[in-house]
Structure formats: structure tokens, C-alpha cells
Amino acid sequence: MTATTPPPGSDADKPIRRAPKHRPDGTTPPPETDGLNDALGAIEEMVLNGAKLEQTGAYLKMMGLAQAYAVAEHRTYAQLQERSSVASPDDLLRLNLRSIVAEFGIHTNESDTALLNRAYDAHRLGTDFVVWLDPLREAAVTMRHARALLRHAGIVPDARLDEYASKVLEFAKGATVAATDAFARKLAAELGAEEFEAAFEHEYQARHVTIEDREFGMSRITADVPTMQARAMYDLMNQQAKALREENVNEADEHRRRVREAQSRGEELSPEDAEFIEDPRTVRQLMADLFVETFLTTTPQSMHEYEAKGRSRVTAMVSIVIPVMNLLNPDAPRDVATINGMTPVSMTEARGMASTAKCFQRILTDPITGHVLTVDSRNPTPSMRRFLQARDQVCLFPGCRRPAHQSELDHTKPWAAGGKTDVENLGHLCPKHHTLKHQRPWECEQLGNGWVRWRTPRGEWVTVEPARVGPIFKPVEDQGYDAVNDPAPF
Question: What are the φ and ψ backbone dihedral angles of 443, each rounded to 5 degrees?
């Protein structure tokens, strides 16, 4: 629990009593004479030394990630020379770099995506902003200042990058990270005015919504949308919330007035006043509620205008019956194709239906009795999906926290290699780590009950424990049942 997130019902929920801004006589209070300033001097030195060590560590980490980027570049170049690749050079470089830093993240408890982005930042600092390297090593500025520099450098023309780097560095040496970020944003807009429109179009194409699960059952939704739309949305919610708050306050004032009048006359309250409950929500709380209600109780215009465009609303599942002997001997006499093993259909029609089917089930039958031996499908059943989402909770790659419902089900032993579609051979991997497993030398095996063991490209074994969803019961000593003194256990 942090100081910024007090528990419900604490004093933080009560109105804040603020100290007066000015002393009654308008003077400045004298320095404290409690003798604690000497101790604060030593504490300050400790904090400053710790900050310098932290900055030195961040610099070393940055240099290491820059070298990891260089290794990924060499590996990518060698792979492109050896064979043609379906992926673009940039995608291949990103895949190689992700594979490298994912192994680092196992030991630093960081996601490979975070380390990947830091590696790109480190590479750009070492190539386009060399003037920053010495101040970073000397702890004159921090990596957070450097990330503010990089965050806004995209629209700065190449010919003016040196000017941009020098001016932001000069400012950053005596400024906070937030102030440096604001300065860099403004300077970049000035130096890259011609590129601003193109940059806006690029950012507009990348608009998206993200969700971050926070503490105490709360989450934060963030939307990257055009500023004019965002400001209009915020202003509308703010005005509506203020109007509701004013209405709630007026209703409460009127209720209190009627109560006073009824008490002065010795009358009973009306049924409405007796049941009246004041709405205590603040403007900020009302804005949050309006935001949620707008999405959950209205239908967007885009959905009203959406059309199915002639696509079928009904899909079919095709069961293909394959006798065991046909699997063993392709030249054996073939049975006719059937729908669900019952109604014969032409093979041409069956192939046409199968070409659009999303799910295939293998039904293996005994050649003597004709009885079904086993049924297998590449795609898991809905019940399997529900179970696996409950079991895995998140992507099974070490350190990844992508929710299972936003991930993909992967056959641990590939389907093409004979892997079965069952819960002991299926697990959730987010799209990035799903690709990493199949395209780079990351191996994994199921140990049972959701435990997965990974082998990194450099041969290290890492075990991922399944999420603990329910309570854990442990035996307790000296808890024997006393039939005389203890109550009945039922």
C-alpha cells in the first residue's frame, strides 16, 4: 500500500483541512531550532549518493542494451545473407533483438517489450545524440531526461538534430524531467514545423486505447486521440458533471429546508423526504461515472452505420471421417465423404465446404468395428478455452503479464509435429511471444497442471508457475478435534 492510494474509509476520504497560506502577521517563520537539520544534512548526502549510483547504473544498462542492439544487427545481416527471409529486415531485426533482451528480462524482472524499447533508445542515443553520452556517464543528466529528448525527436529534421540535442541538453542540466519534456516538445515543434502535419497524420493512424489494471480493483483506460476531440470530450464531461453536482447540491439544500420547516411545525416528514438520500459524488467522481455510462449505455454512430455486407451469419462445422487404414495406406479404398458421419455428399462439395471451415476435427475409427477411436481437432473447444483462460490468466512467457483473453492459444508440441489439442498441450502466449517461440530458439515443455518450463536460446532453463486463482489450504498442527470441549463439526 502506498501513500498515494489510501484504503477506503481512511481519513483521506474526508475533506482536507488546509493550512492557511499566510501567517497572521505576514512574516516568514524563522529556521527550525529542533536540532534535526544536522541529521537532514546526512540524509541529503545519502539520497544524493544513491541518486548518482542509480544514474550510473542506468548509464551502464543503456550501454549494454546498445551493444545488444549491435549484436542483433550483426545476426540479422548474417541471416539475410544466408537466405531470403519472408520478414522485412526491420521485422527480422526486431525479432532477433526481442529474443536477446527477453533472456535479460528473466533476471531483471522486466518485460521484453520494455527492454526492447530501451534498446532502441540506447541505439539512437549512441548514433544521433552522441553529445549526450558524456553527461549521462557523469550523471549530469539522467536517462529519464534522455527519454524526454527522444520522445519528441521524431519530427525534428535530420539537419537540425544537433541543434535540438544541444539545446535540450543545456536546458536539462538544470531542470526536472517534466520541465525538460515540455521544453523538448516545444522546441521540436519549432524546429520541425514543416513535419508537424505529417507527424500528426502518423500519430493519428496509430490512435488506440489501452487499459492498465491498478490496485484495489481499479483500472485506468488511456486513449490516444486527436487533441481537439479529447478536449471536447473532457469539456463536455466536465460541464455535465458540474451541472449534475449543482443539481444534487440544490436538491440536498431543498431537502434540508423542508426538514427544518417540518420540524418547526412538529409535522412528520413526507414519504419522499423520509427516503431522501443525498448524492455525495464530487465533480471528478461524476466525470468518471459519466465516462463509464456513456460507453456502457449508448451505441456509437459507427455501429449504427455498420453493415454485414452480405456475409453469412451462419457457419458450419465439417466432420471428416478418416478410417485408420486410409491413414496407414494412401492407396487403400476410400470411403465417401459424409456430413457428421451420416449423410453422404460428393467429395467436390465436401472440399468446397472444408475450404471455408474454421475448425476441423479428426475422427479416427477402427477398420474392423467402425467404432470411433478418438476425436481430435486443431482448434480447442469452447470449454477448453474457458478452462485454459482460468488456469493461465496471463501469457505463459517468463515475465509477461498480457491477459490470457488478449493472447493466443499455442500447441506446446506443435500440431504439425503430432501435438494433441488438449489442456496439457495448450497454453496462452501473447502474439509477440507466440512468434518468438516458433521463429527463434526458445523451447518450452508442459510439466502438468499449467507449469511450463522454458529453455532460452543460450541454454538456461526457466520454470513458469501457473497463476494462483483460489485459496490454498495448508495443514495446521495441534488442531485436533476435542469431542468434549469443541463444538460439533456440522
Answer: -110, 150
